[in-house]
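User: Here's a chain of 198 residues. Predict its fold as tokens.
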Amino acid sequence: MSHKLITDAEMLKTWCEDHRDVEWIALDTEFISENYYEPLLCLVQVASPRGDFLLDPILLGDTTPFWELLVTGGHETIMHAGQSEMEFCYRYTKDFPRRLFDVQTAAGLAGHEFPAGFTNLLFRVLGRTIPGTESRTNWKARPLSERQLVYALDDVIHLREIRDAIFAELVRQGREAWLAEEMETLREHHRQHFAAQR
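Assistant: Prediction complete.
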């Protein structure tokens, strides 16, 4: 599996410059919430038309430029049950991406089981399975093994295909307007929820 690991500020700056005009960004994160006042962001997995990437917050220190790009770009941001990702986004920018596509929510609107876990949704929509061998890994420890990195990427590299398949179902069902309304409702829900916590 080919991917690029982003580990310093200059690499992140270049990555952001290269992604200002992309049509979509698929996103997932790994983090630790136990024993922390706020969840500790340990890894950001990203897929885009330009490839698959892993941003390492432990080595980067500051990932703010990534989150700023996420909320200012014209791209669509694709996630699965993205409340944690939106929590990090709000923490760094006090804002959210302009165009959201949460595949779990969209799948429910299309008539799939809700809430569907990622592996179940992947199998139901695309007929694929992925291993789950690193679900209890220590994401804070460095260096991360290749197995850990592959596991993390599995949660993001299929998101665009899932999105396209579910959106096609919604189009056939005449429910695209439902999706647009639900994504705006989701944005507002996140805004109220995270603002109330601060």
